[in-house]
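Board notes (copied after class):
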Amino acid sequence: MTRTERSPLLIFGATGYTGRALVELACARGWPTHAHIRPASSRAQSAGARFESLGAALESVPWEADAIRDCVARLRPQVVFGLLGTTQKRAQAEGPGNDYAAVDVGMTQMAIDALAQLATETGRATGRATGSAPRFVYLSSLGAREGARGAYLRARVQVEAYLRAKAEASGIEFAIARPSFITGPDRDESRPGERITSVIADAGLGALAALGIRGPRDRYASMRGHELARALLEIGTRNEARDQVFEADALRALAATSEASFEA
């Protein structure tokens, strides 16, 4: 079953590669879409104009707990997407307060807290049994497991655990996406190492698939922003997707199903 109320979708991380694709897709599919844009973002003006042309509403709210909570309370979204993330290079360039702990973890937890409080205060958690409780969709990463190495993956593990705990305590639903590399020629961020690695990996995985070994390709091959956006919209709006973790192969299958059903 798919949600049909067409209540608002709120996207945090809307100016990123996947976020921009999700805003575009959600608007095209007819969902009332609210795109959060940090006021100080270097992309605020260009992304804002683009989003408004698509029909999205802009939420220019600072990353402060009260402001984020008030934004969520005002919109009462059915689905909140947490697509936040930074890189070591960007953190070094932007200075203190822009590292994994502040952005990937801190800001995402702030958004989770806001949705959990909305559910608690309005009693919307009582709709969990019927699939009408608000849902938080978190963009994690392949390899986010206990004992994961590296600050990036450890941040993802920390947020996943936090989201599960908040869902249990407040009654909100969750869905976690763990894609592999997210890349493509339309990505404007400079990530040459990641791009080169994904190209090499995709070539090797494609060779295995040509030999009939398709499992590794489905699980580890890179995904384009629009492909991942289709999967995220599915796990955000399908009732049966609640409280689930979707690995890369499941995300790829959902993206294909989404495209086929929409075109039909």
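Comment from the instructor: The chain has ten helices and seven strands. The two ends are 17 Å apart (CA to CA).
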